[in-house]
Every structure is written in C-alpha cells, then in structure tokens.
Amino acid sequence: AKLETDLIPEIQGAEKMDIDGQVPDVIPLPYLPLSSSPELQLMPRIDENTNFGGERNLMDRFIKLVDEFDNQVEKLRKDAITLQEKRDYLSMSMDLLKNNDLLTNLQEYEREEINCYMQRVHSRLATVELNVKTVRNAAQEECLHQVNVFIDSLISSSDAVISRQRCQMFLNACEGAPETGPGSSRDTCELSVDKKFESSLLGCTLDDQKTIKKRLNALITYFNKQTISD
C-alpha cells in the first residue's frame, strides 16, 4: 500500500511524488504557499487505486490521518490561547497604568497627553481579535462574569496594599491557602481565602480556572512591586 502526496502547486519546482510503505507516524499538513514554516509543505491524501488489503487496514489509515489533524488542531488552540493571554495581559497592564497614583503628580495637560496616547495604543490593541471558544453552560458563564468583576475591582482600586491583600486571597482560592505552623508571623491575608471569590471560581470551567490563576499571578507580581516601591 502507498500514500500519495502532492506538493503545493505554488512552490517553485513543484512535482508529484509517491511515498511507498507504511503511513508515517507524523503526516505533514498543508501550509500556505508563502508560509515561513520549515516543515515540508505536503498535502496527504489516500491513493484510491491502491489495494489496502482489506477495509480494516483502510480504516486504520484514515484514523491515523484524522489523529494527525486532531493533534494539529489542539496545537493551534494552544497557540491561539497563548496569544490571547498576551493580549489580555497587555490590556490589563494598560488599565493598571491608567489607574496609577503617580499620574496625579503630572500637570493636567501632561495627564491628558498620556491618557490620549494610552487610548491610541489601546485602540490598536482592540484591532487584535482572538477567540478560542470554551464551551460553558449558563451557570459557568455567570460564575466567570462574577470572577471578572472581582478581578476588575483590584485593577480599578487606588489602594495598592489592599488590592495586593485581596489578590493574595483570590490566589489562595485557586491553589488552597498555605499551611502554617503555630507562631507564624505571616500576614493573615496570606493564610486565608476569599470565600465569595472561591465560590464563583469553583463554578467556572477548568480551562477558565487556569486562565484566572495566570491573571492573578501576573497581578500579584505587579502589586508586590508597587507596595515595595511605596
């Protein structure tokens, strides 16, 4: 049995070639003609004139092809989620900057200039649209909305110390409050969990919970730097 592959027509020196033997473990998928990917740009297809030695063998080969498509789709989703997280991180960082107390030390015309500049950058960021759909029911949608409201309240708060404490309590809800022995000098907020936030968090999908934890880790890093510098 053999698997016939066609080179993408736009590639210079394109030609047809046959690959004899078993279906390879990894079958390359088609890429755009101008793609910079170093992978070989091949389009796999089954040669209908080939005797596969039975329907079961043919079925196995189709399954291997679909398995490879499935792997590529999963990789695409992960890459898109990474880009989505980068975009959300940029948006969150600009919101934090917009609410930074140091802006009050500027002259009014300077603040207006900075705000206009940030608005232009934010508008450019808004042109980047990424959407990796997570299947949620109505209850999960509502829980995610509540979690976002909690996190937005941290970003819009003018008190970095309180925001850091609440952010730590939210993080504890994500990973469990750290254990401590008697006589510990650790701050109470580092040992406790915000129960309302935890209730909303547990109602979210697992994918959403992972994303929420990443957002909170980025926020706590920012707040720690703010409180130390203050």
UniProtKB/TrEMBL annotation:
Q: Which residues form the signal peptide?
A: none
Recorded GO terms, molecular function?
adenyl-nucleotide exchange factor activity; protein-folding chaperone binding
What is any one GO biological process for this UniProt entry? protein stabilization
Q: Which residues form a coiled coil?
A: 59-86
Q: Does the keyword Coiled coil apply?
A: yes
Q: Which keywords does UniProt give here? A: Coiled coil
Coiled coil found in the keyword field = yes
Cross-referenced PANTHER family? BAG FAMILY MOLECULAR CHAPERONE REGULATOR 2
For this entry, the protein name equals: Putative bag family molecular chaperone regulator 2 isoform x2
